[in-house]
Amino acid sequence: MRIDILTLFPKIFEGFLNESILGRAIKNEIIKVNLIDFREFSKSKHKKVDDSPYGGGAGMVLGVQSVYDALISIDGYEKANKILLTPQGKKFEQNMAYKLSNKDHIIILCGHYEGYDERIRDLFDCETSIGDFVLTGGEIAAMVMVDAITRVIPGVISKDESHLNDSFSQNLLEHPHYTRPAEFMDKKVPEVLMNGNHKLIKEWRLNESIKRTKERRNDLYIKYLKEQNNE
Ligand code: ADE
């Protein structure tokens, strides 16, 4: 998969793309991430990319010219999945990570300033938000998306199946986990996990997942019940 990120701050991505699972996925050529500083495409004298809003008001607006020129410089941009990051977008969730993990080419625009010139929006296929809060720019949102998408691409996480039990993948939060020691400050690991009966362990884990989801995320629990009843 190829991911092109349009940003004014490519350096923000350095550590993120070089370490851990992401670093490995890039090294193994499962994903290729290209950072494009769209300031370089500005035609203004001082490489300006923003300007004051028509009609007046506070803040600066990101202009369309440099974004457009940067976008059309990307090989195959017409066919790519073009995502504009904004708190006004559709909320990014696990199912979107799965869907995007099947794409060959994604382009992500990280915004800054008060907002986008409205004509930038027309250049993109969808608008995405990572939650109901406002960040100083789209870079962290882009990293969140790239991370969530990459880890569900087959072959990225060593045990191919391990993300299938993730929280959210079946509208359930994950069950509790334990590792050694068997007892810590009077707190014992549940007996059922120690007896090697895989059928009982599976049942216990599912029940704990359901219990936890009901307690913490009733919205997800309702989705889970609907799915179980094929509604
Ligand atoms: N840019 C600023 N805030 C954002 C958010 N919540 N999601 C995506 N992009 C953003």
Overview of the structural elements:
The chain folds into two domains: 2-150, 3-Layer(aba) Sandwich (Alpha/beta knot), CATH 3.40.1280.10; 165-230, tRNA(m1g37)methyltransferase, domain 2 (Trp Operon Repressor, Chain A). It has helices spanning 14-18, 20-27, 64-72, 94-100, 118-121, 139-150, 198-216, 218-228; strands at residues 2-7, 32-37, 50-51, 61-62, 81-91, 105-109, 115-116, 126-129, 183-184, 187-188. The model has no long low-confidence stretch (mean pLDDT 95). The longest helix is centred in the last third of the chain and has 19 residues, at 198-216. The strands form three sheets. The protein has a five-stranded parallel sheet with strand order 2-1-6-5-8, sandwiched between helices. A three-stranded mixed sheet has the order 3-4-7. With 231 residues, it is an alpha/beta fold. Adenine binds at residues 85-87, 111, 129-131, 133-135, 138, 141.
Defining traits:
Trp Operon Repressor, Chain A; alpha/beta; 10 strands; 231 residues; Alpha/beta knot; five-stranded parallel sheet; elongated; single chain
